[in-house]
Write a structure and sequence with these properties.
disordered N terminus, elongated, 6-stranded parallel beta sheet, Rossmann fold, 5-stranded mixed beta sheet, 2 domains, Spore Coat Polysaccharide Biosynthesis Protein SpsA, Chain A, alpha/beta, homodimer
């Protein structure tokens, strides 16, 4: 069972002629371990996944094997595990890693709190690694916490963007066609060869262009940009009082909406819920105060929620400034305390910056200030650059 | 004559099985227009390039055809033209664009000062577009400024990273094998098909992994990151006096070298030469003054050089600060003038920011300040974010 992109979106890279079929690399393949269960529907305890992750990543041009290359400081394989963990009906995930990377992998599972993962030792080839994973699932040992699955999804550790619907298609097709993973015997994962030289019932399952494999350094760049874009879509604006929300909140909300997809303004009551819904960007607006009480409260909530374990969370502490009543320098000096807060927050993967927005009485000028503020907020959220934490920006 | 990646680096994308050969898409093909010249060496006036650029970019998932999608605010096709223009022995570059994009394309050529470019109208297919380009080169009209070439390189408008050595290989192979562009007749650019169904002398020329095609949105992200990385390698640190250069310059140079590849410290005499060598990043250090005289001089030189026509140039105006003699707020207020300078500079594609570095007497503390400054400088250069111009950052 192999996965390819949909008909309309062929691959763009020039393929090497002599290894043309390599371009048709398997994205995921499913093998039905037990024929008895093959006819059954996608049942609760029937599916496991095996991730061969023993590669050395020599094509990447970097010393680290590609599955361990960091994206926003987190290893690539952790994103792939996250994508599979989200799928509740995948009961077990077996990762095959080389002996030398076993401790690294254990560290990743612990740090990013991955669940339902078991480790096996990788073989000398990708196929041997898959075989070791399947063997671990098939073994009928007492005290073994792995349950024998009906269908096993084989998924590359370096395809982080796999979606549930595609995985479901693979599993359903495996159940309908009773495909076996003959790859192991033929030493190739290519559907073409399988169809030509064997009697295996292979079927091409339509994938999506998102299902690409991180191979070159440019793919890491692309993956980082995609991940940044995904977590930058939602922003929550916390206003310190109800009245301020009316006054400035709607104006800011409207402008932020031109730059970001989902903007939610709150006065704080439903913050817990918003954090639970995985919003990774917060703007804490302190309309007339220059202290950090509200920001500190927000930082505590984010920290307690474990939200920043998987992604760096951006928090921007906004302070309004009336030039006429307080000199800019004085205000800046006060708000500069943010540097100390930011250093502490960084340890918990929270990227904190300050933003001073000029607050004139005249509506037109206020809108202009807010517009500049919006540009800065948007840049901070989209770039997510830890080199600029603790800075006090001025709009 | 087709180009594929080298043997060791196959494509990573899953290939659609029914259109498997599409994965072997031509990166560039060369046709010898005149057989008489085919045996000759790579002569000065013998080579032209045709760029089919009539595509609609529907796979990209964005409304703009991909060749016109902006990377650092400049259309992708301009990067491809720049890559070909750099090759002095390519005498003419013919771009085939649709009638509706003709004015856009003329605007791009003018704005980015491209040379040796002629435009022809694109056909309904890629092959018709190539044909129109070849026809323009073959026509023997009086007053026609195009010279009849021996070899024509066909190059996709959406492969911006082509290097001279690869182009030379294609031309040499075309001359040796006398390959004709039979693609036009067969309606496919695939070497496999050409070899199988025709008697054309086709040869696979090894390309490089850099020769990839921008197809999906993720490829645009990757291209932007690659371009940013390339122009972020060199930084020039301009110190205001010779003595300061001794004192702080070496320290800063040493730290910047841990983040960026080429760091050049100057007191200004050879600035013109450094600009000519295409350095896109400048740090202007004003050790004890808070005015912008030096920065303004640098901005003027960058502007006059036309350096910022192709890429946004980053200029960071660094000011040192002795907390004990001048209050932070007062210094900040003074340096905040940078916002006005930055607005003006942005119009000329120069991204100006300010950086205040704490300057204590104690060596250890000074090094700590400079280290923080280095992190910020590096972040500004690598991100090249126009949303953060005119800001005064503090290290």
């Amino acid at each position: 069972m192999e996965l390819g992109p949909p008909g309309g979106s062929g691959p763009a890279e020039p393929g090497p002629r002599l290894r043309g079929l390599r371009g048709a690399d398997a994205a995921a393949s499913a093998s039905s371990l037990s024929r008895f269960g093959a006819e059954a529907g996608c049942r609760a305890s029937a599916v496991a996944a095996v991730l061969p992750a023993g590669g050395s990543g020599e094509r990447m041009g970097v010393p680290t094997p590609k599955q361990f290359c960091p994206i926003l400081e987190r290893p690539l394989i952790s994103y792939t595990l996250q994508a599979l963990e989200r799928v509740s009906w995948i009961k077990d995930i077996i990762v095959a890693v080389t002996r030398e990377n076993m401790e690294t992998m254990k560290g990743i599972i612990q740090r990013y709190q991955h669940k339902r993962i078991s480790l096996v030792e990788a073989g000398v080839t990708r196929h041997r690694s898959i075989f070791n994973g399947l063997k671990a699932l098939a073994e009928d040992q007492p005290n073994c916490r792995l349950s024998k699955p009906e269908v096993v999804i084989i998924h590359d550790a370096v395809r982080p963007f796999v979606e549930e619907d595609v995985l479901l298609k693979v599993v359903t097709a495996a159940q309908e066609h009773g495909c076996s993973d003959y790859d192991l015997e033929f030493g190739t994962e290519c559907l073409h060869l399988a169809l030509k030289y064997s009697h295996i019932k292979a079927k091409l399952v339509e994938g999506s262009p998102d299902l690409w494999k991180v191979t070159y350094k440019r793919d890491l760049y692309a993956a980082e940009s995609i991940i940044k874009e995904r977590i930058s879509q939602k922003v929550c604006v916390v206003m310190d009082t109800k009245e301020d929300e009316e006054h400035v909140g709607h104006c800011l909300e409207e402008m932020l909406k031109t730059e970001l997809n989902h903007v939610k303004v709150t006065s704080g009551q439903d913050l817990q819920q918003i954090i639970l819904e995985q919003c990774y960007n917060f703007v804490c607006v302190n309309v007339m105060t220059s202290d950090f009480e509200e920001t500190q409260r927000l930082l505590n909530m984010v920290e307690e929620s474990n939200l920043s374990i998987l992604y760096p969370v951006v928090v921007i502490s906004v302070h309004f400034l009336d030039y006429e009543s307080v000199p800019l320098g004085q205000k800046m000096e006060k708000v500069m305390q943010i540097r100390e807060f930011a250093k502490e927050a960084k340890k918990r993967n929270i990227l904190l910056s300050g933003l001073l927005i000029y607050f004139p009485q005249e509506e037109q000028k206020l809108r202009e200030s807010l517009r500049q503020g919006t540009t800065i907020i948007s840049a901070l959220i989209k770039e997510r650059n830890s080199g600029l934490i603790g800075q006090l920006l001025v709009a």
